[in-house]
Specification:
Elements (H helix, E strand, L loop, with lengths): L2 E5 L6 H8 L3 H11 L17 E5 H6 L15 E15 L2 E17 L4 E14 L4 H14 L1 E6 L5 E4 L2 H14 L5 H9 L1 H14 L7 H5 L2 H6 L12 E6 L7 E14 L2 E9 L4 H14 L1 H4 L6 E12 L5 E12 L3 E11 L10
Antiparallel strand pairs: 1-2, 3-4, 3-13, 4-5, 5-6, 6-7, 8-9, 9-10, 10-11, 11-12, 12-13
Helix pairs in contact: 1-2, 6-7
């Protein structure tokens, strides 16, 4: 598709939209009319009352001069959507489930496709865990993630997070959290009773993560929501194989280099389906490190010797070809030392159809 679908805002006119796109009203209307159905044709110099979107050429967008956005600048977003995500993690030992965690998230996503900016805000969080021994830990993580997932950022040429722009806001929110809530958190209260030094280490880590000088964009890029919703297919038609450093969940801190292959599966009814499959090759040196870490972390409790390292990482994504936003996605990650210990994560993303952003968001 050679266009995007610009969502008409409350005070928009043909003139204001044309100015945003840095083209003439005639160029805007002519391109839109070539790609709209009969009911969406624009006649004259006014926007039809019923019209919700207007088609804009990608080539016009590529030729535009991108503004330099600084923290505190007002940003106008032309694409908005809400998503609900479900993440299910299971750990199995010797083929039996030892731990089950289900987390549900709601996000508000906004994009400025002209200046290649993105924004994410986590709006809601639900959880359940079996056995419930670490629920207090999840509560603490949820509180700090509420600060973390309220971001404004630039996107690179591959559609991924490039630079976080609202560091000052994140820092202020962290400082306020430390003053008002941190020491009332049940996990922190219990930890302080047995290991006060560990509490101070957690605070220091937060100070670094939310500092003005923080450089943790890679951490965001590897979060399944950002990884899926901000990727090359949201900006480009041509898909390229990419590199991904996977931090092991079974034998940390080992990192397994992956090659991610993206394939177009189908395109119909304005929905493009893409499949991502990860491929890897273990070097002798890396496998030796994996064996060594397995022997330290797991063999004492599991009993059985190291067998074979296995990793599955794949996803299926449906893209709205008019808005270039993700409609649905499924991500599957399964890492194991075969027949001994296995971590599996299944992550689903669904764009909400009815609860959509209003003009005030």
């Amino acid at each position: 598709m050679n266009f995007i679908q610009y969502k008409i805002q409350k005070k928009d006119t043909l003139q204001s939209i044309a100015e945003k796109q840095q083209i003439s009203v005639k160029e805007l209307v002519d391109f839109h009319n070539q790609h709209s159905g009969m009911t969406g044709v624009i006649i004259g110099n006014a926007l039809p009352i019923h019209l919700e979107h207007i088609f804009v050429s990608k080539e016009h967008i590529k030729k535009q001069k991108v503004k330099s956005i600084k923290e505190g600048d007002k940003v106008t977003f032309n694409q908005k959507a809400r998503y609900r995500c479900v993440q299910v993690n299971t750990t199995s030992i010797n083929g039996e489930v030892a731990q089950f965690v289900e987390q549900k998230f709601q996000y508000l996503l906004k994009m400025d496709t002209v200046n290649q900016l993105g924004s994410v805000k986590r709006e809601d969080y639900l959880k359940k865990m079996t056995p419930p021994v670490m629920l207090n830990v999840l509560d603490f993580i949820a509180e700090t993630d509420h600060i973390k997932h309220n971001t404004l950022f630039t996107l690179d040429e591959k559609g991924q997070i490039n630079t976080i722009l609202n560091r000052r806001e994140l820092n202020e929110n962290w400082i306020e959290y430390k003053k008002q809530k941190l020491h009332h958190n049940p996990f922190i209260i219990e930890l302080a009773k047995t290991n006060a030094d560990a509490v101070q280490e957690i605070i220091k880590l937060g100070d670094v993560q939310f500092s003005h000088e923080a450089s943790n964009e890679e951490e965001y890029r590897k979060d399944f929501f950002y990884f899926t919703c901000f990727n090359q297919y949201t900006l480009n038609d041509h898909l390229e194989t990419s590199h991904f450093d996977f931090l092991s969940t079974v034998v940390p801190p080992n990192v397994v280099p992956l090659s991610l292959r993206y394939d177009k599966v189908s395109e119909q009814n304005d929905i493009l389906t893409i499949r991502m499959i990860a491929e890897y090759q273990l070097t002798k040196e890396l496998e030796e490190k994996i064996i060594s870490q397995y022997n330290v972390l797991h063999k004492p409790s599991i009993g059985f010797s190291y067998t074979q390292y296995k990793l599955i990482f794949r996803s299926t994504i449906e893209i709205d070809t008019q808005t270039r936003l993700v409609k649905t996605a499924t991500v599957k990650m399964k890492e194991s030392i075969a027949d001994n210990i296995e971590n599996e994560c299944n992550y689903t993303i669904k764009q909400l159809e009815n609860y959509t952003p209003d003009e005030g968001n």
